[in-house]
Amino acid sequence: MEKQPVLIALLLVSLVGTASCQPQIPNAKKSIVVTYSILGSVVRDLVGDQADVIVPMPNGLDPHEWQPSAKDIERFNKADLVVENGLGLEGGMGKTLDAARKKGVKFFTASDYITVRHVGAGEGIPTGDPDQAIGAEDPHLWMDPIAMKSIVSALASELKNNLNLDVTARAIDLESRLDTLNTEATNIVTQIPQGDRKLVTGHESLGYFAQRYGFKLVGAIVPSISSQAEVSAADLANLKKLIQDNQVKAIFTELGTSPVVSKAIGDETGVKVVELTTHALFSDGSYFTYMKNLATVVANGLK
After folding, report:
1. Which of 164, 182, 200 is at the close of a domain?
2. How many domains is the chain built from?
3. Does residue 167 fall inside a structural domain?
4. Considering the domain boundaries, does residue 11 fall inside one?
5. What is the SS3 assignment for the chain?
6. Residue 134: which CATH number?
7. Which of 130, 149, 210, 282: disulfide with 178, CB 3.0–4.6 Å?
8. Do 194 and 155 share a structural domain?
9. Which of 137, 160, 182 is the last residue of a domain?
10. CA atoms within 13 A on the CB side of 223
């Protein structure tokens, strides 16, 4: 009888030891899927390590045309939140995004939280295709740090209310940094006289940049807000005249612009052709590096 307490104690120790050896199931992080790298960079800055931020589309590809694989589609369908640009930017992902919505996946559409720019008269865009028409909605919102600031504020509320992620402190810091970035970009472009702030680009991608920093949009090689639009001989002839009439100092080519066509226009007008990074992050993955480079290349190109 005296041995019973000892046996019970040994049994309890054994049970506790066995329980402590059981694998602990960690709290799984939320999954936030973002449709392209530049927006993804800002979302990562906001979220930090509080969630897994996934960008299925490889950096530098054109969101107008990229199509997800079966594995990518699964990521969208299993996401706790999908962050998209909207305004037709993710053309190649359209069916995948629609299917995820039907499955009940939560979406945050960045363009819902900014003042959307519309294509204006005198921007070198003919009528016809909806993406080319006056009044078309411009999806290239990441060209404006202040627009991105509005998106950060709205997304912080979304994360707190619907995913129980409190990123308030990170949002305040990021918004302050975006204000500083805007000031830095403003200082970079002020070295260009107002009369020389005239832009000719690969397609109509710099509208928000032009609006924020006081540039005139003269025209584009592909006269559309989508790089997938067709260009005609008449469009190119009109663009050459616009370049000459406005005494444009540089043609900025970008993702989706034919280098052959760009060079031909440059040769025929006597205007230099400058390559501009509009749809890709640099090796550090930073939106801030991206924007400062954009402003610097534009400023140097127009000197």
Report:
1. 182
2. 2
3. yes
4. no
5. CCCHHHHHHHHHHHHHHHHHCCCCCCCCCEEEEECCHHHHHHHHHHHCCCEEEECCCCCCCCCCCCCCCHHHHHHHHHCCEEEECCCCCCHHHHHHHHHHHHCCCCEEEHHHHCCCCECCCCCCCCCCCCCCCCCCECCCHHHCHHHHHHHHHHHHHHHHHHCCCCCHHHHHHHHHHHHHHHHHHHHHHCCCCHHHCEEEEEECCCHHHHHHHCCEEEEEEECCCCCCCCCCHHHHHHHHHHHHHCCCCEEEECCCCCHHHHHHHHHHHCCEEEECCCCCCCCCCCHHHHHHHHHHHHHHHCC
6. 3.40.50.1980
7. 149
8. no
9. 182
10. 26
Residues 203-213: pLDDT tens digits?
889 999 999 99
Q: How far apart are CA 298 and CA 216, in angstroms?
A: 13
